[in-house]
TrEMBL record:
Protein known as: RpsU-divergently transcribed protein
COQ9 C-terminal domain: residues covered: 129-194
GO MF entries: lipid binding
Protein origin, superkingdom: Bacteria
Organism: Komagataeibacter oboediens
GO BP annotation list: ubiquinone biosynthetic process
Pfam families named in the record: COQ9 (PF08511)
InterPro entries: COQ9_C, Ubiq_biosynth_COQ9
Length: 207
């Protein structure tokens, strides 16, 4: 398999399909996330009905994994709607702004987001977790105005995946102080500066 084929395969894996959504579903998710029980109890279909209505589960036939995936997708779309506010000449600063926006915007529901991630961390939901995180990383780059293609596209997403996941986990466990989250993110974002050097080394070896 040549380099272009490898890049095409990696790009495909890093581009999960868009998730279907609806105004009714979004409203239900926001209602569920806002309920204190969604942050203090493990997520079940029964809890979803209690918090969001008796028929709430009908919009999510694949169960709570679909609910959790849809919650992260809602975070992605809320962030993308604010794209115009991420203004900087440096794309790394726009990436930082996009990540901080999604975390700050979701801060009132941090405990519920922790429960959502717990659902996706179940081994049987590994594929759902992978595409959820991949979709979020793509959305962050899109919000930052990234237009890269090919190998650069792949390496940027692979690098940001580690930064985003570690920052998300830090925010979920110790995110009560926004300043500490920003400091953590800034330290991890310094890794993005390695993308060009990594790309040059890899392409030099493969060529």
């Amino acid at each position: 398999m040549n380099l272009s084929a490898l890049v095409a395969a990696a790009t495909s894996a890093l581009e999960p399909p868009a998730l279907q959504n609806s105004p009714q579903g979004d409203a239900l998710l926001r209602r569920f996330l806002a309920d204190p029980r969604a942050g203090s109890q493990p997520w079940t279909t029964a809890l979803l009905r209690q918090c969001a209505g008796e028929d709430a589960d009908l919009l999510f036939p694949d169960g709570m994994a679909q609910v959790a995936e849809s919650c992260f997708d809602l975070m992605d779309r809320d962030m993308l709607a604010a794209t115009n506010s991420f203004r900087s000449r440096k794309i790394s600063r726009r990436v930082r702004a996009a990540v901080m926006f999604r975390l700050d915007h979701a801060a009132p529901h941090r405990a519920a987001i922790r429960q959502a991630l717990a659902v996706l961390m179940v081994p049987t939901h590994a594929r759902v977790l992978a595409r959820t995180l991949g979709r979020s990383v793509n959305a962050i780059w899109q919000a930052a105005g990234d237009t890269s293609t090919g190998f650069t596209y792949v390496t940027k997403r692979m690098t940001l995946s580690g930064v985003y996941i570690s920052t998300l986990l830090f925010w979920l466990t110790r995110g009560g102080n926004p300043a500490s989250v920003e400091e953590f993110l800034d330290r991890r974002l310094s890794e993005i500066g390695r993308i060009t050097r990594l790309r040059n080394r890899l392409t030099g070896r493969i060529a």
